[in-house]
């Protein structure tokens, strides 16, 4: 089993101070409110968990592709790209923690930190072709393209509205909007490169690409939704990658017990282990959970060599 490493032990050059700087604009510290909301949410998760254990066999309670597509079509329709502005942080904040630090924070802060990890991995591996499986509204690739204008980026998503939202940003702007440039964790080298990203609709269990089409395949809280097709999705990621896969997902090693485990079961989220990856043709190189995390679901960043 591969150990979970501290962030600063990884070959990415990411420091704790850098992560804190990126996350800080989205944080409101209030330990008393945090504790009250945690207790309330914990009770709700217990009820959902018990219901799942008793009635999880029912098709209508399982997280199937149709339900995920319906939920996230609505999600991408509801998100205004201006909500990524550092000057207009959304009022809606959820429960986050990083070690002993507790915070009420917008999930935009988590997006920004994860974007930094993606940047550092691409700097490390220097891929020419990158695929994001489950790209959602395209925020990761729109920003990455500006940092790496010579790299060919492609995004695919189960929903219609995710790629459509990204394409609207491309069609309505000649340069990446200034608020998105400011949201990026590091400066962009070409603010027009976002227009060259390819976005399309498709199913992770049957990716419409030839074998070894990409040097790097990335996923960010996308496999989270794919418990019902996880084996097919992992096999497909390995099939289309000619080099590496980098996944930021709630692998079981990070959610093995306590409230995190109950939440995964209650929501029918991903239950795959990092230790399962070799069976799908991926050899983990390193893994970490050392980043700001939602209190009820811990993401694990894993870099794996394919083949």
TrEMBL record:
<keyword id="KW-0489">Methyltransferase</keyword>
<dbReference type="InterPro" id="IPR013216">
    <property type="entry name" value="Methyltransf_11"/>
</dbReference>
<feature type="domain" description="Methyltransferase type 11">
    <location>
        <begin position="131"/>
        <end position="240"/>
    </location>
</feature>
<dbReference type="Pfam" id="PF08241">
    <property type="entry name" value="Methyltransf_11"/>
</dbReference>
<protein>
    <submittedName>
        <fullName>Class I SAM-dependent methyltransferase</fullName>
        <ecNumber>2.1.-.-</ecNumber>
    </submittedName>
</protein>
<dbReference type="GO" id="GO:0032259">
    <property type="term" value="P:methylation"/>
</dbReference>
<dbReference type="InterPro" id="IPR029063">
    <property type="entry name" value="SAM-dependent_MTases_sf"/>
</dbReference>
<dbReference type="GO" id="GO:0008168">
    <property type="term" value="F:methyltransferase activity"/>
</dbReference>
<keyword id="KW-0808">Transferase</keyword>
């Amino acid at each position: 089993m591969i150990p979970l490493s501290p962030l600063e032990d990884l070959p990415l050059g990411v420091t704790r101070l850098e992560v804190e700087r990126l996350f800080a604009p989205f944080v409101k510290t209030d330990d008393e409110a945090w504790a009250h909301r945690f207790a309330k949410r914990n009770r709700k998760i217990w009820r959902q968990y018990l219901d799942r254990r008793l009635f999880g066999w029912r098709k209508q309670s399982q997280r199937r592709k149709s339900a995920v597509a319906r939920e996230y079509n609505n999600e991408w329709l509801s998100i205004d790209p201006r909500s990524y502005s550092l000057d207009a942080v959304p009022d809606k904040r959820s429960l986050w923690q990083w070690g002993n630090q507790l915070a009420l924070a917008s999930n935009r802060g988590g997006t920004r930190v994860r974007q930094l990890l993606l940047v550092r991995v691409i700097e490390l591996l220097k891929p020419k072709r990158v695929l994001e499986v489950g790209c959602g509204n395209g925020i990761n690739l729109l920003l990455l393209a500006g940092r790496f204008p010579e790299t060919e980026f492609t995004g695919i998503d189960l929903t219609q509205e995710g790629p459509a939202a990204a394409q609207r940003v491309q069609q309505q702007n000649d340069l990446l909007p200034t608020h998105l440039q400011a949201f990026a964790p590091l400066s962009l080298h070409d603010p027009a490169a976002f227009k060259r990203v390819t976005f399309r609709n498709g199913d992770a269990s049957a990716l419409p690409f030839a074998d070894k089409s990409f040097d790097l395949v990335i996923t960010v809280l996308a496999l989270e939704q794919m418990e019902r097709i996880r084996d097919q999705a992992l096999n497909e990621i390995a099939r289309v990658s000619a080099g590496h896969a980098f996944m930021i997902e709630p692998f079981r090693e990070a959610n093995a017990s306590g409230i995190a485990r109950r939440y995964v079961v209650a929501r029918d989220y991903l239950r795959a282990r990092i230790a399962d990856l070799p069976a799908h043709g991926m050899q983990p190189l390193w893994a970490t959970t050392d980043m700001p995390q939602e209190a009820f679901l811990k993401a694990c960043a894993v870099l794996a060599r394919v083949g």
